[in-house]
Here is the input.
Amino acid sequence: MNKSFIKHIAFYIFLISFLSACNTLKHLPEGEKLYVGADISFEGKTPGSYKKEILGEIEDLTIPEPNKKILGIRLGLWAYQKVERDKAGFYSKFVNKKLGEEPALMSDVNMDAVEKLMYNRLENLGYFNSLINSDTTHRKKTGDASYEIQTGGRIYIADYKFKNTGDSAIDTLVLSHLAKETKIKEGSTYTLAKLTQERESLSVLLRAHGFYYFNEKFFRFTVDTLDTEEVNKGNLLLAVKNSTPEESLLRYKINEIVVYPKYSIKSDSAHDSSDSTTYEGVDFIQEEEFFLPDRMYPYLLVKEGDFYNITNEENTNRRLSSLQTYRFVNIRFEDDSLKRNGYGLLNTSIFLSPMNKRAVRADLQAVSKSNNFIGPTLNLEYTNRNLYKGGEAFTLRGKIGYEAQLARGEFSGLSSFETGLQGELMVPRLIAPFHLETKFRYSIPKTKIKLSYDLLQRVKLFTLHSFLAQFGYEWTANAFVTHTINPISINWIDLTKTSTQFNKVLDDNPILRLSFEQQFIAGLNYSFQYSKLNRPDQISRFFVQFNADLAGNTISLAQNIAGRTGDEQRLFGQRYAQYSKFDVDVRHYLNTSKEGRLVARVFAGFGFPYGNSNSLPFAKQYFSGGPNSLRAFRIRSVGPGSYVPDDPLSAGAFFDQAGDIKLEANLEYRFPIVSVLKGAVFTDAGNVWMKNEDDRGGKFGSEWFNQIAVGAGIGLRVDIDFFVIRLDVATPLRLPSKTNDNEAAEFIWRQNFNFGDKSWRQRNIVWNFGIGYPF
Here is the structure.
């Protein structure tokens, strides 16, 4: 089946769908008209920002929802009608199953009900005594609705007070909140959302100070607009309802605490166990010692004799859930109906359901990498989730893979064999000469120890042995911030069996040779991450990651103290690297509609080689171009600076085009097409540079802005929530170097786009296939 035949089939399917969809109006029920939507307008002087806020609240109220259009065609309605008339073929049945929808009819429009909902939403925003005029327009086969809104005067808060309950604890807590923490200020707008948030905040405050049974429903707000001198201002009064149950006004303390470290949901084995160990006043019940009590106790922030605190409950749950040992964590509180010194008592039970202690996993992957290597990889993994009965997780990973590179020139026939073994021990506490566990309330830091060996054999080029040893810590500061620090990070790389071809590449570029000679990398690295990506409901979300990598300083200092300088700056016979490297990745995700996203990303990375190094080690350098970078340029095909290799497809070009400095920016708009199929339009810009002068002329200097490469393109994505397949196609808009089209200009914007020329497309159209979103 040739491409021309496929194109004709696709065209005819589209044409049939288009012509058929145009006939949807002919098959409506008798006497009915198709509802095509509603228009909302404003009368009077409503500020533009307020209009946007109001529309955000009421646009979804204009029911029914009109039938969706795809490229101007009501495809779902067309397929539904075909099935209803028993005239559906395979194609229309398939479309109906995925997109089919009943017709939205004018007879379904209930304007009185919509107006009532709109009035309610307007009052929730503080607009009282508003007016809404609604009407319908009927055409031959279609109709629509219109709603004209004249907002009443918006209510502002003149004063905010609390009515004392007579309970000194409640009154003190609430008054302190009103004085320091409240978001409701004098002069702020009245909205139901603010009042709801205030009730929730106060409820959490009381539950953090012993009021276990209290909830936000026991607060009541009243607004008095008659007792104010100014129009559209009201006095806000907060009170506790008289109907609040007595137990909700009682403070509770923690009484007995019992932990079941190996609880089975199926058999409810906790209550059948008789072996009990008491540690620091906490009873640990387990038939056999599954988890050491002294190792688990630091995870418990719920303490006997303390007032009940919802924050301590949540943090205890989170800390125990962070252990890879357990599948479920369930904390239960029971009122023992006794009182002590006027306080209620809560008995606490903590049920912990473990996962299988040991697990073995094997998977075979078809890997497609950003450097155009593809091939199968076999991964094996063994895990012990509770190695020393303290939640220690030991993981042993092995891999073996073969890849071939799809490329032309010297890359043709290039293959790669890779194998490796890695052992990682995660200890769920600090292993350090100092004790800081009590400083971390949200979660306990983890200690990670990693050892690995990798063998990479690039046919026609070289064999690389890599040894890595790391010791570090990872902890979560709050719901958005994660820190990782490795004070010890040692990477030793042994380059062997270099081919004549690869040696020529190194001989032609002394800087590249030095970057491969720096095979001993010892230092520390740190990573900070701030992410709100787990809050998809928020309109605006940020992601920030900062990395710092420092190498060689301790070794150099020790050698200087010992009097070893100059050519003696080697360790174990290897030239070691000295550098400081910092980079930051900032992303902003803006929800433009229910499924539309505008994503902006800026990346800046700076490496500063010094002392024993003239450039970063090759493994630490930046590169530009490829499916997760500048998608209009092939992998490693941009820079450094204005450098262009004589043969872009040579092996030397692949290793040449990297740098110590990288600047990159991306802007992408993502939108739904149909079902799980999504689309995107994007533009990317950036380049890499060297910190110091080299033979390629790629040093970072005052002309860096003129050396920015720019590209743009479109993409298709199959997004199945947990899995995304991505295809992007792009073309360069601005080249950072001389081109064959215009040898006189160094940094030019492309003027001509000859998409009909096959040779032009081969040179200027870049296809990128990837798994997951680029950022």
